[in-house]
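Bench log. Compound arrived from synthesis this morning; before running ITC I wanted a structural hypothesis for how adenosine-5'-triphosphate sits in the protein. Inputs:
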Amino acid sequence: PTAMNDINLNPPTIHWQDIGGQDTLKKALGLMVKYTKNPERFLRPPGKGILLYGPPGCSKTLSAQATATESGFNFFAVKGAELLNMYVGESERAVRTLFERARAASPSIIFFDEIDSIGGQRTGAGGSASRNTGAVNMLTTLLTEMDGFETLTGVLVLAATNRPEAIDPALMRPGRFDQVLYVGPPDQAARETIFTVNTRGLPVAEDVDIPELARRAEGHSGAEIKAACNDACVIAQGSFEDEDEAVSKPQVKMADLEGALQ
Ligand code: ATP
């Protein structure tokens, strides 16, 4: 009965506009939502599932959450590693129950984060079994559930990984994760959005130049930019004068953000 503890039915409210860039990704996810709502309007199904891959902290999870917020679909999120930590047999049951619950609550989204930990290659080099049987059984269960999906309308399956090369090719066959999309680091415009979103609601000093910060953050992930915004608050707080009774809180200045980025 505890197997489903890690399912998160109430994802944070994330809108498309909170995500900088990633236009292709947003379009593909939006199309899948349309299909899930009105399959009869499509000449061909755009696929059953989407696998998102790319470096850490670049909005894979965020995009899955935004898909849930924007569509209003129920959201079932599970981390591969958590399934793997369950007792023998329990994790397969957890996967089956997950699909059952998603069907019952449709329209819904199932999001497998870190899918490589359960959907990894079943055999290693030379054909020797390189994976524990628990993971193999779970992968088989997952494939069965996705194949049995034919009659299953109203469930959109998403998955994410940082290691696409480790994914068992069986997961990418037609009728499973038909679409494999790269979610890359943010570009200049996306970095500007990430700074804007993460300084929203903060008292920001007039000298803060977001395009300039975004230029300096080139090569950084969204997660790193978010962390820099948080660190800037700590820096600003540290230099705040207790005796300054004119204002009750410090302002975040350009220098604080630059310092945090470094
Ligand atoms: P991981 O592979 O580590 O799970 P991920 O790609 O799933 O990474 P997210 O959890 O989606 O990464 O992103 C981490 C945080 O970084 C988000 O909560 C968000 O604050 C910020 N972020 C990343 N990319 C963007 C973006 N394009 N727009 C706005 N925020 C972003």
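What the model suggests: The longest strand covers residues 155-161. Residues 19-22, 56-62, 160, 162, 186, 190, 193-194, 197, 222-223, 226 surround adenosine-5'-triphosphate (CB under 6 Å).
ITC booked for Thursday regardless.
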